[in-house]
Amino acid sequence: MIEAHQLTKRYGEKTAVDRLDFTVKPGSVTGFLGPNGAGKSTTMRMIVGLDAPTDGSVSVNGRRYAQHSAPLQEVGALLEAKSIHPGRTAFNHLMAQAHTHGIPRRRVDEVIELTGLQSVARKRAGAFSLGMGQRLGIAAALLGDPATIMLDEPVNGLDPEGVRWIRNLLVGLAAEGRTVFVSSHLMSEMALVADHLIVVGRGRLLADTTVEELVRQSGGDTVKVASSDPGRLRELLAAPGVGITGRSGSEELLVTGVTAREIGLKAAEHGIALFELSSRQVSLEEAFMELTRDAVEYHGTTGPGLTGTTDPLAGADPATTSGPLTTTGPDTPGRAA
Amino acid sequence: MTTIAPIQTSGPAAEGRPRPAYRVTGRRVLRAEWAKLWSLRSTWITLGLALLFVVAFGLIASAQYKSRITSGGRMDHDFAAASAVRLSLFGTNFGQLALGVLGVLVTAGEYSTGMIRSTLAAVPKRLPVLWSKAVVYGLVALTVGTAGAFTAFLIGSRIVTGTPAALTISDPGVVRSLLGAGLYLGLVGVIGTALGALLRSVAGGISVLVASLMLIPGLVSLLPTAWQDHIGRYLPSNAGESMFTLHHVANTLTPGTGLLVFLGWTALALAGAAWRLGRTDA
């Protein structure tokens, strides 16, 4: 459990982290999202005590990180920047870290095996590829067998194989009941693994929400329907909670709040010919960009009530911008499970 | 590697096993710093160089003295008045550079590589890291320095037997001087460690180390003589040198006072390092 209260970090005039309040609950994967420079890394560095907060506080399992008698057993952290001496072998690096806590050599061998570093464990870490370096960082994070794992941009710069490895790792960690706090500037990546999302922009909390909630807030899934009589179809579909947009003179309508199936049935019932009927999922990437675009103007809110906007797609006209939507087949299930 | 199955991260028996009681202790941090020191190639190379410098330059000085004495060549006054101890310890000038630089690397090297983030994540109380590095490396430098000083003397004193400089290990003050030289080199190592932690830069640490040990004494010689006497002997290099001179010379400190003054400089550097380590973000 990580709890931040009014966590603030200022560098001179610049405020990197601005009064952040959030809680990372145990046993879940919490995504920490924000554009580059949003203060994610600084926040993570404050969690493990590398940076001191200018104001506010952050605690790990009820105490400041530095107050724990075995900090590596509380939080295992993979920070974005390299945190190894390139002249030391992977094994020696891990062993030195282990010595500080009295962690036995057996556990060092164990994490080397878990991260697939056996073949390079005796090689100097400076010669490691990015992916291998990342594995070594994760091995170090797992060393104390901590209940909370914190990873800063773990997939940055990795090849697809490495990305998949990290993804499986995160899922595996969460399945073991660990708390996983992982930062990324890629919403799509987060959507695959995270249950909970903490979104920041310019150091401020923009949203503390779940993936589903964010999708809903972003207007939910949309159905694109092209028909012989869009005007009539619009009237038929009109109901509270249903949003319909379309250009005049166009056959196409974009409908939210009704499923493709319902639209199809309704059209058949009234004899309207349909030329196209497809569900489109809200791209989380776009929802995220929408949320962070004017980061500085928004004020942090906790809970699901993002920014108080009720307009789906936040003012963007879906008929003219295809941006917020990605097309998927009519019966495509939700986000990759 | 290509497995899709979630990766097991805690090995066998993940569930329901008692969590091992790990704990950071001072001794364990020392152990870790010891392991870190010896797991780098640069440590072995630099320590080897330091030992080589101390011994080789001591022997070269002794051999030079011997050849000039026997050939009746010209010698400046200083050289002519040298003792076997002084000749053998000629190499400390060079050895201190190697040992001091390695001291800087021990701490500043962690900042330049990013290792410091791992180090402080494991020991977030921070200060134990500095004390451990200073103790571990100080003892290693002390050992290398003492070994070098004794080796240089044992061989060098044979070279100069039968000359006015001749001394044996049992002569009064000889062992004290050699131990003083070892202690001086050990403390130079500690100062290097402290400077590295204070400046967090290898280049910066080495520059300040070289400046304080080698350049400032030269600059002080430009000051008026009265000032020189007052200030000069308290400078790190001069106070340090007093620790291993055989015979006390006017305008210098006694070995004991020299040791105290040099310890003071070391403590000052360590205090600065501790202040910076505790206060600034890593």
End-to-end Cα distance of chain A, whole Å, is 25 Å
Low-confidence stretches of chain A: 296-337
The count of strands of chain B amounts to 0
Distance between the termini of chain B: 34 Å
Biggest sheet character of chain B:
none
Please tell me what the overall shape of chain B is: elongated
Percent in strands of chain A: 25-35%
What is the approximate shape of chain A? Answer: elongated
Mean pLDDT of chain B: 90
- Which protein chains are joined by the largest interface, and how many residues does each one contribute? A-B, 56 and 46 residues
User: Which regions of chain B have little confidence, pLDDT < 50, spanning 5+ residues?
Assistant: 11-16
Question: Care to describe what's here?
Answer:
The complex is a heterodimer of chains A (337) and B (282). Chain A is an alpha/beta fold. Chain A folds into two domains: 2-202, Rossmann fold; 219-283 and 303-327, Alpha-Beta Plaits (2-Layer Sandwich), CATH 3.30.70. Chain A contains eleven helices and 14 strands. In chain A, the strands form three sheets. In chain A, strands 5-6-7-3-8-9 form a six-stranded mixed sheet, with helices on both faces. Chain A has a five-stranded antiparallel sheet with strand order 11-12-10-13-14. The longest helix of chain A has 16 residues, at 160-175. Chain A is elongated, with a radius of gyration of 24 Å. Chain B has one domain. The two termini of chain B are 34 Å apart. Mean pLDDT of chain B is 90; it is low at 11-16. At the A-B interface, helix 2, helix 3, helix 4 and helix 6 of A face helix 1, helix 5 and helix 6 of B.
Describe the structure using short key phrases.
heterodimer, A: alpha/beta, Rossmann fold, Alpha-Beta Plaits, six-stranded mixed sheet, five-stranded antiparallel sheet, disordered C terminus, B: 282 residues, mainly alpha, 0% strand
